[in-house]
Amino acid sequence: xxxxxxxxxxxxxxxxxxxxxxxxxxxxxxxxxxxxxxxxxxxxxxxxxxxxxxxxxxxxxxxxxxxxxxxxxxxxxxxxxxxxxxxxxxxxxxxxxxxxxxxxxxxxxxxxxxxxxxxxxxxxxxxxxxxxxxxxxxxxxxxxxxxxxxxxxxxxxxxxxxxxxxxxxxxxxxxxxxxxxxxxxxxxxxxxxxxxxxxxxxxxxxxxxxxxxxxxxxxxxxxxxxxxxxxxxxxxxxxxxxxxxxxxxxxxxxxxxxxxxxxxxxxxxxxxxxxxxxxxxxxxxxxxxxxxxxxxxxxxxxxxxxxxxxxxxxxxxxxxxxxxxxxxxxxxxxxxxxxxxxxxxxxxxxxxxxxxxxxxxxxxxxxxxxxxxxxxxxxxxxxxxxxxxxxxxxxxxxxxxxxxxxxxxxxxxxxxxxxxxxxxxxxxxxxxxxxxxxxxxxxxxx
Length: 446
Ligand code: PFF
Prior knowledge:
Blueprint: H1 9-20, H2 23-35, H3 39-67, H4 71-78, H5 85-117, H6 125-137, H7 140-159, H8 161-188, H9 194-201, H10 210-223, H11 230-235, H12 244-272, H13 281-294, H14 298-331, H15 336-356, E1 365-366, E2 369-370, H16 371-398, H17 401-408, H18 415-445
Antiparallel strand pairs: 1-2
């Protein structure tokens, strides 16, 4: 049977950007920037994104497009069947863990979109906080939302690459972009918005230390979906004529732009109402609903915001599920629908435990962490970094340089890629692995 593929350059691009742009951009980046020195952090983030992350992105792209296979088979076949295939297997499993807990938060976005549509954000700050705590700690409502979110994800994936993932991303990504830009313009025009812009963009180099750099790198990995097999899998559906450098750079730039615009949508509004920004769930589900309740036309802005959050989460979660769907279809001979059903069952079960860890299972801990935090920390702090490290080592030290060159330059026909290949190769072989190890170890020690 012919392998499915993306139908157009734009389609492949929005799908990759869709994977990259997600909760990471909306609820972590703005806060990390403010906490870690504003523009100084952004400069470090941009440098790391392009010097370390872009070569890793290109490495995953090369592996996927060269092999035209799922992540497991890519590592297996390109290494001549060696134990590297287990690294491939790891990159199939890790996104499933992320998909499981990501879907819990995706489910919260559903609930909050519903709340926004019924104009429920009109209480005090304390009542918004207790609304959130009551919701997440109740056993059923978050579970139902998690189920709806995961089901939606699987229903998009089951339709296939061109007709499901690509079509969905083509409609939703431009919509997402316009919504966030519209909110940013609105937010920046609020009286008192300047304090939020200062928080984001005033450079404070004294805050840049090893910890800030480790945070920037971790965020850049997560935001670009690196080390999870997603970029590899998506690239395996990209046409051989397409340009690896262009696709990778365009995704990284869109992801960065999106994160900055999200910051400009959120922080000025938070500061305009004299609040302090939090990170993660607190920012999106406690602080912002209160802000929406205070601002003129806030009810509509809230609807737009939660549509954006939901779309961003969905385009990311479909990319996580697709990694394992490709694996099950190609290696275990599942049908697409069978693979989606099996993965739904698996992620639903793990996600359910994560969801309950905010309520009935909150006392159950692993290594001092709740189930949700345990999976989040394991996958996005440890396994993702390991996946990225092993990917660059594989491409830089195991693949033949001529093969990487061939794939990256489309057989020598792309002149810019030919020119930059030397620098890229040097980064992949030496700088990326050393930087990842150094920053990872430093992050652990600090
Ligand atoms: N890049 C996504 C975000 O910023 O929210 C998260 C993500 C997507 C992680 C896909 C892993 C992945 F495979």
